[in-house]
Amino acid sequence: MKAYSLQILAIILMTFLYSGCSKQPEVSAKVLIDNSLPTPVLNGHIGEMNAIAFEWQSISDSRVKGFYVYRSNPSEKNEKLHRIAKIETPYATHFVDQNLLPNSAYAYRFSSYNAKGIESLGSKTYRASTLARIASVSFFRSIGNMPRSAKLIWRPHTDTQIKGYTLERKRKIDSQFKEIANIKNRLTAEYIDTNLDDNEIYQYRLFAITYNDIKSVPSEIVTVVTKPLPEAILNIQATQTLPKKILLSWNPSQCENLSHYNIYRSSSLDGSYKYHVKLTENSFKDTIEDDGTVYYYKVTAVDEDGLESPLAKTAVKGMSLAKPKTPLSFTGKLQDHSVILHWKHADLDTVSYILIKTKKESWLKSSVQEIKNITQESFKDREITPDITYLYQIVAVNQYGIRSKPSEAITLSFEAK
Q1: Element (H, E) at 340
Q2: 0.85 exceeded by the pTM?
């Protein structure tokens, strides 16, 4: 009995346990061996892209409670074997090793074990390889010069193992591709990539995906350049000398599919430029209610796809014609029952004057009269009455009828004798 125990139990390294030529893979751990247990004998194997299936001869020894599977790792050059599976039934004759790398070689050994987990001698080393990846689609093309988007088209994959596709993208400045879409149906033949940058270069590649989630080799790389924005508007001009309006003009846009122009306006140079008007001509009349009103303008071109040229960093200043300046040195005096008024012009654009005469008969009763079309810089008012207070103001008028602000009032009166 003692000799038998010594025969079946030994704690040794697998290099001793799995005797054979020196090229056999090394086992990574110490195991308990019973060399009287039957060793599995394989009938063969079948490989796929990410799995290898094995079949071995049935074992009828009642001591066998299951099987161990050892496998090498392709990343380890010495083919060291690692235990990867424990099959917990003696009746099994098949095993599928899954989630393997496509187009990769592996080494395998199999052993049986008893109720105490003690193993048989290992089988001979079996070498098996997974299949190469499926090729990608045979035709993959791109359509560029689209507004903020790219169209990718391909010929559907003919292999019925394919369930769909994965699309990857990178910009010219990126170091690597990134997945942007999972396309579920094998018969799908196009994808529209949106929300892209204007006038940007993008590269794409397509992978076919099998039902067991294996990627094909990548397709050829295709390049797309998105549509550029219309060029900025040049030579914007704005008037500052026209009454109640500002005229804008600019060079016509050279955009081939121009839709319209947008005008943006702000009341200050560094303020917020708000959309003001849309038009198709390269000129615009901005009607202004107040005199001397200043606006700053920026103009953009918009194409038929809705792409808009950038706003210029600088704006053009426009202004409605300002009011004439108020006359200077306005004076008045009583002389021979008349009022003599004098002033000096303050604006060369003045063509006439208006005298505003206010007659105050009491605290509650007064009347205002405007004496227009005065062309001299003096006026003699003979229509005055004793014991009445008069207030005079002078206003300058330009050729467009725009009036200056009135001067400060002169107050005159005389008593009856």
Answers
A1: strand 338-344
A2: no
